[in-house]
Amino acid sequence: MDTIFALASAQGKAGVSVIRISGPNALGVANQICDRPLPAKGRGLRRLIDFDGSQLDEALVLSFAAPASFTGENIVEFQVHGSTAVVSAVLDRLTKTPDLRLAEPGEFTRRALENGKLDLAQVEALADLIDAETEAQRKQAQVVLSGGLGQLAERWRVDLIRAASLIEVTIDFADEDVPVDVTPEVTTLLNSVAQDLEAETKGVKIAERIRDGFEVAIIGAPNVGKSTLLNMLAGREAAITSEYAGTTRDVIEVRMDLAGLPVTLLDTAGLRDTDDHVEGIGIELARKRAEQADLRVFLVEPDEAIDLEMKPGDIRLRPKADMREISDGSISGKTGQGVDRLVTHISDTLKDRSTQVGVATRARHRDMMLAALNSLSEAQLVLQRGAEFYEIAAEDIRSAVRSLEMLVGRVGVENLLDEIFSSFCLGK
């Protein structure tokens, strides 16, 4: 494979910048640019020199011999002073070095996958970790990055291979007396894996919400204080407020961190009958977003009918607490009265839902697990039809195994790789 290099830290001025080289010639290239041989212990200070012998910078040099590295190849990292001039000079020197090229987006991580250092689920988790904005996102990404999903998939795979092997032994000795009926053990193995798969698939939706963000919609009639409440929660003037009804005609989104969870607050158009075509479009959009939201906050009077079905966890509050003599069960975005209680309620509700999450985090994971589950269901049905159908059952089990192997990227995911790695930066 080619030897590649890239800036592994962020662009721009910094205290330290990291430039990474990986590939079969990484150690040789590093020895060319350093004023003396690489440190024997894998780390040490070296002067980096240009072709004419002039000094580019003094850097901390780290070397990792294959396979004990991130990519599984020889890797050298230069921790240089983080000025744009220093970084540009070192990168320019590497660009002019023979048999060395600039890495493509995600190429370091792709090599880690190809060399067995990471499975595909870990690669996706690494991307999630880089993008993590909240504590919940960080923790979720770390679980998968540590190999949690791969370990589960391997355990399921071993059990299914055992089940298929038992059936195939029965097929191979069909003309002889087999002293043991393998059906009970096979059934137990299939049921155990199927139960695990069902539990994991149910948690994917919550995991996706932790990664992408929960949506909380503020619903109510025009001019009840929805935009004012949104601005109070956001801590800034995110939405226009006025005394005129119908000011909000589009869905306004504000992303924030609530108790470590990513939450997008939605300020929607006031729900009412209107002859205004543009406002009507906004109201229809508000209804759709409200129905799709994970949680809804209704600002309505006690006797006021709600034109949307309340779902478990939804919150109903009276608006404009600052204008009431009795403020119990009401809220005011203008004065902040009841806002802390609302934030606590939303946080507690979403944290409670987050406890249902497993280690599978993406729709792709769910699709692969559902495919495996469908194959197992077919195998269980076929097993009930008797020994003459065991060969079909064995093939169904093998199909489930292939789905699990696709889950972690062992087979059949080549068409996904370019899309996955395109989201990574050059140095990752």
Can you walk me through this structure?
The protein has 13 helices and eleven strands. With 428 residues, the chain is α/β, with parallel strands linked by helices. The protein folds into three domains: 4-118, Gyrase A, domain 2, CATH 3.30.1360; 127-209 and 362-409, Four Helix Bundle (Hemerythrin (Met), subunit A), CATH 1.20.120; 223-338, Rossmann fold (3-Layer(aba) Sandwich), CATH 3.40.50. A hairpin with a 2-residue loop joins strand 8 (252-258) and strand 9 (261-267). Helix 6 packs antiparallel against helix 7 (183-212) and helix 6 (148-172) packs antiparallel against helix 12. The two termini are 17 Å apart. Mean pLDDT is 84; it is low at 240-249.
What would the keywords be for this entry?
3 domains, Four Helix Bundle (Hemerythrin (Met), subunit A), 45% helix, six-stranded mixed β-sheet, flat, Gyrase A, domain 2, Rossmann fold, 13 helices, 428 residues, alpha/beta, 11 strands
In short:
This protein is α/β, with parallel strands linked by helices and 428 residues long.
